[in-house]
């Protein structure tokens, strides 16, 4: 079985990767697995989502860790950390 999640990218990630897309993953996949699947595409995806890069994630509009499990129809957003001043 698989799950399809709607990806959304914000701020500098949107500039590099676009607004978003649908991603199909094996059932039981995590946020970290989704990030790795995107990185495995190489190029700009590998650079923008590299392991050393500070990238935050939100699952269905709630901050989450990379261990969060994805369900079919979830919305997964990636964005850089926000600073204020």
UniProtKB/TrEMBL annotation:
Q: Which SUPFAM superfamilies match?
A: MoaD/ThiS
Recorded hits in InterPro entries, A to Z, give: Beta-grasp_dom_sf, MOCS2A, Mopterin_synth/thiamin_S_b, ThiS/MoaD-like
Instruction: Please indicate which superkingdom the organism of origin belongs to.
Output: Bacteria
Entry keyword set: Nucleotide-binding
Q: Which family is this protein grouped under?
A: Belongs to the MoaD family.
Q: Known NCBIfam families for this protein?
A: moaD
PANTHER family noted in UniProt: MOLYBDOPTERIN SYNTHASE SULFUR CARRIER SUBUNIT
**What is the protein name stated in its UniProt record?**
Molybdopterin synthase sulfur carrier subunit
State the organism of origin: Pelomonas nitida
Instruction: State the gene name recorded for this protein.
Output: moaD
């Amino acid at each position: 079985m698989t799950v399809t999640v709607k990806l959304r990218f914000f701020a500098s990630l949107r500039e590099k990767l676009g607004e978003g897309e649908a991603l199909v993953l094996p059932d039981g996949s995590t946020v970290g697995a989704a990030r790795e699947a995107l990185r495995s595409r190489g190029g700009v995806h590998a650079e923008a989502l590299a392991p050393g890069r500070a990238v935050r994630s939100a699952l269905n509009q709630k901050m989450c860790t990379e261990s969060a499990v994805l369900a079919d129809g979830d919305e997964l957003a990636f964005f850089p950390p926000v600073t204020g001043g």
